[in-house]
Amino acid sequence: MRSAKAKAWIFGNHSPLNPDLSRISPHDLIVAVDKGLETVHRLQLKPGLIIGDFDSLSEPGLLEVYSDTPLIRLQPDKNATDTEHAFEELSSLGYRKITLFNDLGGRFDHALALIRNLEAAHREGIDCRIETGSQILFMLDAETELDYPPGTLLSLLALSPELKFVSSSGLQYPLDDLLILNYQTRGISNLITQSPARILREKGSALAVITIL
Prior knowledge:
Helix content: 10-25%
Shape: elongated
Radius of gyration: 18 Å
Strand content: 25-35%
CATH topology of the largest domain: Rossmann fold
Order of helices and strands: EEHEHEHEHEEEEEEEEE
CATH superfamily of the largest domain: Thiamin pyrophosphokinase, catalytic domain
Number of strands: 14
CATH architecture of the largest domain: 3-Layer(aba) Sandwich
Number of helices: 4
Largest sheet: 10 strands, mixed
């Protein structure tokens, strides 16, 4: 089993052009999913794992360039996306901290599926997030500390039928005893007023979206 400190970084088909690479350690695992291999190559990173059916890869010659890298070739006809397979593989390898670089552009159904991948990983106890370049998406724990500068925009969405909060601190709009149903938008556009902000959740699945202003 990997150390709880081990991190994996996934580059997918819609990775942002200039992701923040400053937090990537030489000991971390870089994963290229399908066309994400082109981004990894452009950024001059060394992938530790390549996975996909490669139906979106416009430079198939890159597979030869990285022929010494472990490769998982998926069949085009499958019941899960390439990214979901990547999450499952990393989970089986013991990684508990995973960041997916994806701008959530392209097909909306794929973007929505990534949110569900995020939720599934969280249910397995994996600290997982999506970074788009301007936003950071992650699931709230029962107790969550948000270490972002005051003025940072925070939106909270219920992925379960009901989302109930106990309390919060450091937010413009308190969450004390707040109930949000999954068809409501009440959690949109809150602001962090004091860092670190803290949120205590009672029940339900909560997607947090941080917008970098």
